[in-house]
Automatic annotation (TrEMBL):
Pfam families: 7TM_GPCR_Sra. The keyword Membrane applies. The chain crosses the membrane at residues 22-43, 143-163, 183-208, 229-255, 267-294. This is Uncharacterized protein. It is a multi-pass membrane protein. Keywords: Membrane, Transmembrane, Transmembrane helix. One of its GO terms (cellular component) is membrane. The keyword Membrane applies. InterPro entries: 7TM_GPCR_serpentine_rcpt_Sra, Nematode_rcpt-like_serp_alpha.
Length: 330
């Protein structure tokens, strides 16, 4: 027999205050898909990144869009049920069992986003180390890091929901099974720590790359490699830091809400928590910042080439302008 929604649950599912953030999420998710198409084209034809970094960006875009598509599907169907069954409390809820696939895909996509961002941080560490040792960075590192992230994203939902009977009813399939609450809280705590550590690591990587850039001032070949590594590192770290901040808000905020749920009324809890769910904003930041970073860097390089082609100067002036270009680029 179907479980009937309580009057308070009916209010939550049909209220404008609780449905508004879901409408915003759907718009953000659709924008992510469109921007991702543009970002993929840029990575293919106008990329400023090493092959290993591009591989990781492609995998990250896959997970971001997987999450966005699952969220669009779940929230549109939930809104549809709230409209059709607004006067039918015994039909408006869905079984947890019917949400098994959605739960696993959503958790896997978020895990994939977190792990690929970690892989991008590792990729920058490898690039920095390769420059220090004057060795060529191989694209195989991107494949290995991507494979590790993919394996991790598959294991996380398996571990989180292992043995869960998927019993009961929920408002929509974005909600995790109640029986896995403790493991889900542990996962959120791990994500929070991972995100904070990676934000710190990205700051350290940028600092080291800037030092390497200054240390190769009179070694032309190494100077060029150091500048290219610094440009890529600044772009990658900007992208990953934005995602880590959004994912840290998601994991820390949701964990805080879940562990203090008793301090909220049921309506207030479900009205606030969608705004704390920042995964869609982490997802949309990825293609947006890829587009912005590639565009800005491409314009700076074209401007530098035009200066070289259109300027006639003495040898002393030429050396001065080259030095300024090195120091001021990107």
């Amino acid at each position: 027999m179907a479980e009937c929604a309580t009057p308070e649950t009916m209010q939550i599912m049909t209220s404008f205050a609780t449905n508004l953030p879901y409408a915003v999420h759907v718009i953000v998710c659709l924008a992510t898909v469109v921007l991702s198409i543009i970002a993929v084209r840029m990575l293919l034809y106008r990329s400023i990144f090493h092959d290993s970094t591009r591989i990781l960006f492609f995998v990250s875009l896959f997970y971001a869009n997987l999450h966005e598509l699952m969220q669009i599907y779940n929230e549109v169907t939930a809104f549809y049920r709230s409209m059709i069954y607004a006067d039918a409390p015994c039909k408006i809820l869905v079984t947890q069992e019917s949400c098994r696939l959605e739960n696993n895909l959503i958790v896997s996509s978020i895990a994939g986003m977190v792990f690929v961002e970690c892989a991008l941080t590792m990729d920058r560490i490898i690039a920095t180390y390769s420059l220090k040792k004057s060795v060529t960075m191989s694209s195989s590192s991107g494949f290995v890091l991507a494979l590790a992230a993919i394996i991790g994203s598959i294991l996380v939902p398996f571990i989180t929901f292992y043995g869960d009977p998927y019993t009961g009813y929920v408002q929509n399939c974005m909600l995790m099974p109640a029986q896995s609450k403790n493991r889900a809280n542990t996962l959120l705590f791990c994500y929070t720590i991972i995100n904070i550590v990676n934000i710190a690591l990205n700051s350290v990587i940028i600092y080291i790359n800037k030092r390497q850039d200054r240390g190769t001032r009179f070694k032309l070949k190494l100077r060029y490699q150091a500048r290219e590594t610094l440009i890529s590192t600044l772009a990658v770290c900007t992208i990953t830091t934005a995602q880590f901040i959004a994912l840290a808000i998601y994991s820390g905020g949701i964990l805080l809400m879940r562990t203090n749920q008793d301090h909220f009324t049921l309506f207030a809890y479900f009205a606030i928590i969608p705004w704390v769910y920042a995964v869609p904003y982490a997802a949309i930041s990825l293609p947006t910042l890829i587009i912005v970073c590639v565009s800005i860097t491409g314009k700076d390089r074209r401007r530098a080439i035009e200066v070289v082609q259109n300027t006639k100067e003495t040898q002393e002036g030429r050396m001065k302008s080259l030095n300024e270009m090195w120091n001021n680029s990107y």
